[in-house]
Amino acid sequence: MTMSERDDTHHEAPMPTAAAWLGYGGLLPFAGGAAGVWLTAGFAQSAIGAALLCYGGAILSFLGGIHWGWGAQAGADRVGARLVWSVVPSLWAAFAMTLGLLTGPRVGYAALVAGLLLWRVLEVAACPPGPVAPWYPRLRRHLTFGAASCLALAAVASPA
């Protein structure tokens, strides 16, 4: 059963309060960063933009850590595939942050948006299923699109 099938089958699965608070609360720095990029200029905009770029990279890396944890479990199936997949988001995040710092935040934000969306597609389509709680795919979908939207908005407001 793939992650998307689990998402469809357990559409109404109750989400633990801690997962909801921590997950959706993790969108606050994205929203605050995007607002800060829109509402400031000069050094303040650059500083907020760099912080948003770093936070986005950290979150993308975290997504790979989830798969590392699944692969590191005793008796996990397809351990090698899980561990290989798990490093992709960290490598992409490092690339996106470096690109953003060297060429400008707009390019970095765009690379992070692409990484978040691509990882979501790959996670649903190609990654081996893990020990996923029924509510997890729905939360991941919401958080991915929330984070990607905020980064896209910051990219629009950033200097070229």
What does this structure look like?
By secondary structure, the protein is mainly α. It has one domain. The protein contains seven helices and no strands. It has helices at 3-9, 17-25, 28-39, 42-72, 79-103, 105-125, 136-157. It is globular, with a radius of gyration of 16 Å. It starts with a helix and ends with a helix. The mean pLDDT is 88.
Q: Please tally the β strands and state the result.
A: 0
The overall number of domains is 1
Total helices: the number is 7
Mean pLDDT: 88
List the uncertain runs: none
Series of secondary-structure elements, N-terminal to C-terminal: HHHHHHH
InterPro entries: DUF3429 (IPR021836)
Keywords: Membrane, Transmembrane, Transmembrane helix
Protein name: DUF3429 domain-containing protein
Organism: Tepidimonas taiwanensis
What's a concise summary of this model?
This protein is mainly α and 160 residues long. It has one domain. The chain has helices at 3-9, 17-25, 28-39, 42-72, 79-103, 105-125, 136-157.
Task: Give the helices and strands, then pairings.
Elements: H1 3-9, H2 17-25, H3 28-39, H4 42-72, H5 79-103, H6 105-125, H7 136-157
Notable characteristics:
single chain; 160 residues; mainly alpha; 7 helices; 0% strand
